[in-house]
Amino acid sequence: MQPGDLGQVVRETVQLFKAQMRDTDGEVRLFVVPGLPQNAEFDKDAVREVVLNLLSNAIKYSGDDKFVTVRVGQDREEMFIEVADRGIGIDPADQQRIFEKFYRVDEALTRKVDGTGLGLTISREIAKAHGGEITVESARGKGSRFTVWIPIRISKPMPRSASARSDRTPTREALRPPEPAETAPGVKP
C-alpha cells in the first residue's frame, strides 16, 4: 500500500479502458466527487485491476445499451468506486454467488460472453485486502451497480530528527569548530 489519490488512479484507469474499447460501441462517463484525500493508502495496481474488471463486465453484460457510469467519492470514513450499467441485470438468487470462484450466471446471453468467472472473485479479495468490501445492487433488465468500499487510511509523513537524517549532510552543529578546552588558571593552553 502506498499513499495516493484514488480519483486520479481511477481517472487514469478509465482513460486506459476507453482507449482499449475505441472500436466498440459504448460510453463510459466518470464523476469524481471533490474532497477525496490526496494521500490515502491503497494498492494502486490492485485498485486498477478492480476497476478494469468492473468496467469490462459492465460493457460485456450491457446488451445494446453500453452506457456505463463510474463514480468515485467518499462517504464518512470510506472511499468508494461505483460502476453502474444499464445492462441485463442479475437475478437476486445469483447476486451472492457471482463472487464465487468460476461462477457464471447460466443464461443465453451470458454464455455468449467470454470470461473465466474469476474477475469478481479477484475484485472481492482485493477489496477485503484493503479492509473493505464490494457490494452489488441489480434488477433484471435494468442493470447493475457494483460499489467497492475502501476504508480511508491516511499516510502520515515520518518525522525527521537530526539523529535520523537520511541524506548524510552534516548538521550545523557538526560544522562548528570545537570550543577551546578549559584550562586551569595560570596554565597556558
Can you describe this structure?
By secondary structure, this protein is an alpha+beta fold. The chain has one domain: Histidine kinase-like ATPase, C-terminal domain (Heat Shock Protein 90). 29% of the residues lie in helices and 24% in strands. It contains 6 helices and 7 strands, in the order βαββαββαααββα. It has helices at 6-20, 44-60, 92-95, 108-111, 119-129, 172-175, and strands at 2-4, 27-32, 40-42, 67-75, 78-85, 133-139, 143-151. The protein has a 5-stranded mixed beta sheet with strand order 2-4-5-7-6, covered by helices on one side. The protein has a two-stranded antiparallel ribbon with strand order 1-3. β4 (67-75) and β5 (78-85) form a beta hairpin. It is globular and about 50 Å long. The chain starts with a strand and ends in a 14-residue tail after the last helix. The model is unreliable at 162-172 (pLDDT under 50).
